[in-house]
Design goal:
The first copy, chain A, is an alpha/beta fold. In chain A, about 40% of the residues lie in helices and about 25% in strands.
């Protein structure tokens, strides 16, 4: 939607979705660049529920704060499940190499698996980034790629696992290897394992080899 | 927030934010796994505006559909700007190699740059993924990594550029190279250029070499 940038407009939009029994699962608001007036912003909404699409769109278009409504496919349809790789640059890049090449083999057969990475340093920074994985949309797997991780990072690994996201760690110094679901020495294999597990085509199930080191 | 999974609850939450003059910029709703009751979900909300945090939290906690409110740092603070790489697996992996290593050098000095990838094949699939970059939160750069891209993909490149996101293409067959801001032959250099441009520390500005081929 192109909608007016005012704090009450979202309330009106949420009310319309509620009236049509549509459950909003994601909203993202971003300032327009070049394409629309300064007082308007782009609002991206993902919803679920059995709705009559034409009625919903008409109701949204009739709101005073909304100037345009366009239907797109969801991020889930387009970018699919996300494998998240966090750690040191050299190792993150190698895990990504394995993961991207394996994702290519699955996506070519119609799946959608993304490989998202951030190279970071420091226990506090890493802990923040690991914890935030549990809140990331469509995150399906975390790979920790480094040479030394422990302390608060290990506690964050436990929290990510408790949120239902499995964790693979490279074989490294520190306590993180005792908290991960799987420990893998070769970074390329770690990336391949990660994608194989989240794929709905592949036969690999990480939990069948849980606790093992490769 | 841990909130009840009902379509009207979001309306109540949006109303509270509006009453406190807080502008919601992102919402993400996800089913709880393991941590809470089936009838509740995790709701992640990013907001901006000058608010009294304690008052806002108290008002949210008083809503009948909300059972818990926790303050986290935003995805922007933790994962920062995103470089998006789309294309064929072999080349996406090489661009990622350059981008992740360059991001490492910036993030180690306190920046936050993520490198997010998806390997895909086919004009329609690629066009969808390229177009969706304009709607992705925090997307700051798109790199197209392949050997042949044109047709509708080139039109999508124009739309992404119009949304304010610059586009780098590998030197390849097809018309996409005529639409990208920059054409780069070496995939590792393409990844490095991409991160250098989005970095606020680096001196490189893609628009100063716009239209060139390296």
């Amino acid at each position: 939607m192109i909608a007016r940038n005012k704090s009450g407009v979202l309330k009106d939009i949420a009310t319309v979705f509620a009236e049509h029994n549509a459950n909003i699962v994601m909203i993202h608001l971003e300032a327009c660049e070049g394409q629309c007036d300064e007082t308007y912003e782009e609002l991206y909404v993902e919803f679920e529920g059995e709705i009559i699409e034409d009625h919903l769109i008409t109701s949204l278009q009739n709101l005073p704060g909304v100037s345009e409504v366009i239907i797109h496919r969801s991020f889930g349809d387009i970018y699919g499940k996300r494998v998240i790789i966090i750690g040191g640059g050299a190792q993150v890049a190698q895990v990504a190499l394995g993961a991207v090449n394996e994702a290519d083999r699955h996506n070519i057969r119609g799946e959608r698996i993304s490989v998202d990475t951030i190279p970071l340093v420091g226990e506090k920074t890493l802990t923040q980034a690991v914890d935030a994985v549990a809140r990331l949309p469509r995150a399906s797997m975390l790979v920790l790629a480094g040479s030394l991780m422990g302390g608060d990072v290990s506690k964050a690994v436990d929290r990510v696992k408790a949120s239902g996201i499995p964790v693979i760690a490279l074989n490294m110094a520190g306590t993180v290897v005792d908290h991960a679901d799987l420990v893998v020495t070769d970074p390329i294999q770690a990336g391949v394992f990660a994608v194989m597990h989240v794929s709905s085509i592949a036969v690999f199930d990480l939990y069948r080899v849980q606790g093992r080191k490769f």
